[in-house]
Amino acid sequence: MESWDEGGVRARIRELAAQDPERSRFGAATHRYELEPALPEAEIRAFEEAHDIDLPAEYRSFVAQVGDGPAGPGHWLMPLTARHPEIGEEWAVDDEWEEDRLPGRLTEPFPLTEPLPGRIGPSACELTRGTLMLAEEGCGIYVRLILNGLRKGEVWEIDPNWGGFVPVRPGFGTWYTEWLQRL
């Protein structure tokens, strides 16, 4: 999926919000079913050039055509170029977001060729090189987009304490669309 129906996505998010006025669905209290505007092409290109990467097409087209989060799976879809608006307290995800943007981190090769199930422990940080955090699921569990190598474009979940680092969807489009279709 390289083209998104922005109006359709926004309409579906409004439907989800109407079905959940108490914001009781997982993550809704954080993202509030709000979607930021799409990013200008120049801003996306500047991010790619600064990090020496080409974003996977499905994700790139989403932020260019639909919006730059936050409505989405998990607590919210992380923004690409600017930190999330303050939500009233320091959030552990801030450190993860900033670490992704350290010089050279996103362009490094993704170190895995196969899933790594089970407990990972403290070495989890080394495994996320060449990936971009998409969302936080709570309890130190993150959803990440693979940016390079044989697994480029796949969406993986890292749960260092229990679940390991494993693929969850073949691409951003499937991952996000499945969230839109839930309920």
What integer is the average pLDDT? 90
Shape: globular
Order of strands across the biggest sheet? 1-2-3-4
What level of helicity do the residues show? 25-40%
What distance separates the N and C termini?
22 Å
Instruction: Using the CA coordinates, give the radius of gyration.
Output: 16 Å
Describe the structure.
There is one protein chain. By secondary structure, the protein is an alpha+beta fold. It contains seven helices and four strands. It has helices at residues 6-19, 28-31, 41-51, 57-65, 93-100, 124-127, 172-181; strands at 131-138, 141-146, 155-159, 164-169. The chain has a four-stranded antiparallel beta sheet. Strand 1 and strand 2 (141-146) form a beta hairpin. The radius of gyration is 16 Å and the shape is globular. The two termini are 22 Å apart.
Keywords:
4 strands, 183 residues, alpha+beta, four-stranded antiparallel beta sheet
Concise overview:
The protein is α+β, with helices and mostly antiparallel strands.
Topology overview:
Elements: H1 6-19, H2 28-31, H3 41-51, H4 57-65, H5 93-100, H6 124-127, E1 131-138, E2 141-146, E3 155-159, E4 164-169, H7 172-181
Antiparallel strand pairs: 1-2, 2-3, 3-4
